[in-house]
Specification:
The complex is a heterodimer. Chain A is α/β, with parallel strands linked by helices. Chain A has one domain (4-243): TIM Barrel (Alpha-Beta Barrel), CATH 3.20.20.140. Helices cover 42% and strands 15% of the residues of chain A. Chain A contains eleven helices and eight strands. Chain A has an eight-stranded parallel beta sheet. The longest helix of chain A has 15 residues, at 229-243. In chain A, 52% of the residues are buried. Chain B is of the alpha/beta class. Chain B has one domain (5-245): Metal-dependent hydrolases (TIM Barrel), CATH 3.20.20.140. Chain B has helices spanning 24-33, 44-48, 51-62, 79-89, 113-125, 140-150, 166-175, 192-200, 216-225, 230-245, and strands spanning 5-12, 36-43, 68-73, 95-100, 131-137, 155-162, 179-182, 205-206. In chain B, strands 1-2-3-4-5-6-7-8 form an eight-stranded parallel beta sheet, with helices on both faces. Chain B is globular, with a radius of gyration of 16 Å. The chains are: A alpha/beta, B alpha/beta. The A-B interface holds A 18-19, 130, 132-134, 162-164, 166-167, 170, 185-191, 193-194, 210-221, 223-224 and B 17-21, 26, 30, 33-34, 163-164, 186-191, 193, 211-222, 224-226.
């Protein structure tokens, strides 16, 4: 049974005491039989995205299971140009953004300019909503992302959204065929069934958010989901392979 | 693990989120799927809208279900009604204690005067139903610890283990003989369980899922993945709840 994890990270987490080292991430992936995992260095989120991306690439070069994701900190971006193209040329498979964690809104000129750059390069993009729960939910973000990416052909993956976002997510998936989801916070008993019953099995990628989260929570949720095995297989690995052209 | 899980934090009824599995048959199916042998439920209708109607609906739901027990939900904004509800339901063997809320749901702090009164009545008239599950996040943690000091005869279960404040919650439980930590969460953040076991001891931790609002996978995965002994996992998933609720056969 092939398993690929679309949502992992490694490095150092400053907001609480937790071991999110690369060794820990690899231990978790190995103990759960994960074949490959998309990962990025947390240095790119908190400190400097160029150094973080270099670290991610370096580690991916040493371990072929690690699929490198780049990130760009839009607090340092004004539309320099060529950033996304460079990520593609370096071998990154995905670009990830963390608006809530870095405290910038979607109605933010650097984000709008960056989205033009991503669209031009046709690179898969993942936008993460919740990493560590804090404060209120930002309902409306998914709608804004859908509006901005409505005519894109490249995939946009919304990651780490919980049950409060399901109606918004399902609504935009009806109209925007390029919108995909990761399952790291599929946390109601019928999450998978809700999405699969509406024809979205091909648009869900398995994600655990390890080592921030316990891997088994996400794995058990998929294992126990009331959906056919064929769809589980797509979610475990096939969809991500297709989206990232692996 | 060859024992059935005891879930000390579950619900009956609908919520304000998009989920289709909220009926009694759904709850029983979810329990079977995760090998949960016993669940303690409170009424979501009682919590978010109408206490009397919710408690009534819950009493009927658990009546003929050997695997289900009930918490009586009380709202301190309705004192007279709540005191009548205690008289009406707590003598019923299917009701095992109280479920109390704070802040957003009822716009009252956890240590409000109404909750003090409920606990006084519980101790005076229903000492065998002395378990209280409190919804408890963030700033409510210290309030619950202080409240527990005033009622040493009551067993306080801190729902959600204080949310993101689990270290503070565990430190409070470690200092309070009558405070237990219930682990349900939709955000399975590492290393909650290891921290709680290290600080408060495995004996103080109870499995809860928050089903059918949340998938039991979230909190069960936390226990299964935690780097603690198998013996401690058994205590959390089963043994501790037997002791707290005085269950003899599960």
């Amino acid at each position: 049974m092939k398993i690929m994890d679309a949502n992992t990270c490694f490095g150092s987490w400053p907001k609480r005491n937790v071991d999110v080292s690369l060794d820990q991430l690899k231990r978790i992936m190995e103990s759960h039989g994960v074949d490959r995992f998309v990962a990025l260095s947390l240095k790119g989120i908190f400190y400097d995205y160029e150094e973080g991306n270099d670290e991610t690439l370096r580690q991916a070069g040493k371990d072929e299971r690690l699929i490198p994701a780049a990130t760009v900190d839009l607090r340092k971006y004004y539309g320099q140009g060529g950033v996304v193209r460079q990520c593609l040329e370096q071998g990154f498979k995905l670009i990830r953004l963390f608006p809530n964690l870095q405290g910038w809104p979607l109605n933010y000129a650097p984000f709008l300019r960056f989205m033009d750059e991503v669209a031009g390069a046709g690179m898969p993009l993942m936008i993460t909503l919740i990493v560590q729960p804090a404060g209120n939910h930002c309902l409306g973000m998914i709608t804004d992302i859908a509006r901005l990416t409505a005519d894109w052909r490249s995939p946009v993956i919304i990651s780490s959204f919980d049950h409060f976002y399901y109606p918004e997510m399902l609504a935009v998936m009806e109209t925007n065929s390029n919108i995909h989801v990761d399952s790291s916070l599929f946390n109601t008993p019928d999450s998978y069934r809700l999405f699969v019953a509406r024809g979205h099995a091909g648009r869900i990628v398995f994600g655990s958010n390890a080592p921030m989260y316990y891997f088994a929570s996400a794995a058990l949720s998929l294992e126990k989901a009331d959906i056919p095995e064929k769809q589980k297989k797509m979610i475990r690995a096939e969809n991500l392979t297709r989206l990232l052209r692996l | 693990m060859n024992m059935k899980i005891i879930d000390v934090h579950a619900h009956q009824g609908k919520w304000f989120i998009l989920t289709e599995q909220t009926g009694l048959d759904d709850i029983l199916a979810i329990m079977r799927n995760y090998e949960i042998g016993t669940a303690m439920l409170s009424s979501s209708l009682a919590i978010i809208n109408d206490p009397a109607a919710g408690n009534r609906e819950l009493a009927l739901a658990v009546k003929n279900q050997p695997s289900l027990f009930a918490y009586l939900m009380l709202n301190p904004n309705y004192m007279d009604l709540s005191l009548r509800e205690m008289e009406r339901y707590l003598p019923d063997e299917k009701f095992v204690g109280l479920k109390l809320y704070s802040e957003g749901y009822i716009a009252q702090p956890l240590d409000c005067a109404g909750h003090y009164r409920f606990l006084e009545v519980l101790c005076e008239k229903y000492p065998r139903k002395n378990v209280v599950l409190f919804h408890c996040w963030h700033q409510s943690v210290s309030r619950l610890i202080a409240l527990a000091r005033s009622f040493p005869g009551v067993k306080f279960i801190m729902g959600h283990m204080g949310g993101t404040e689990w270290v503070e919650a565990a430190e409070g439980a470690a200092k309070s003989d009558n405070v237990y930590l219930e682990i349900s969460s939709g955000y399975p953040l590492r290393p909650k369980i290891e921290d709680a076991v290290r600080i408060a001891g495995a004996e103080k931790i109870l499995y809860g899922s928050d089903l059918p609002l949340l998938d039991p996978a979230s909190s069960l995965g936390m226990v299964l993945d935690a780097e603690i002994s198998e013996k401690d996992k058994e205590k959390i998933l089963h043994g501790n709840a037997m002791n707290v609720f005085g269950i003899t056969n599960s």
